[in-house]
């Protein structure tokens, strides 16, 4: 009679039933194909039928649901959208940066943070906002002198998508600032493809919010126009969200 396991996973090769009394040393390499298959069979027989993963509930994210909106971006006012040539150049530059990050990722992963750097815990959303944006921006205080502005760190220890979510949540309720743009660009550069569903939803949310802010700009000379166009361009052109892409005027 076949075992329950064989009913679900029928044998593909004609291998004699392994006698558990046979003297097999699993630590030694097999001497022939038949012995190899018998060793595999013996190893399989030693595995439990059911394995239960030990999961720490404290490490699970509170928000597990992912809602992907299919709505597009707001159309740019006349003269506010970038040319296709500009978009292609930004995508090319971004691709080179991502390749550089990928090349050096393993090297930097082995380096510890400076002793004077205290990183927020991964699930500390408000602390991450303050860490990335600076206390003045986070508290809506008057801007400090650009010459003394804290440029922050160029490496992030927490999950990329988690910090990206925190900053996009902040952006949904506030205006675009240069500190936010730098961090969003860096996080997008570190976001690995193919995208997880959560990351897919986040970057679309970023593009839509950027288009909303852009639609309310009063002048083409506004310093926020170029970085807002860049966010929309990267999401649409690099991450293949083509329905969000700007078309030439």
Query: What is the N-to-C succession of helices and strands?
Result: HHHHHHHHH
Total E-strand runs: 0
Strand content: under 5%
- Could you give a short account of the major beta sheet? none
The secondary structure category is: mainly alpha
> Fraction of residues in helices?
40-55%
Count of DSSP H/I helices? 9
Give the averaged pLDDT, no decimals.
79
Beginning-to-end CA distance, first to last residue: 73 Å
Report the uncertain regions: 146-157
Computed over alpha carbons, the radius of gyration is 26 Å
Principal-axes shape call: elongated
Describe the structure concisely for a colleague.
With 249 residues, the chain is mostly helical. It is 47% helix and 0% strand. It is built from nine helices and no strands.
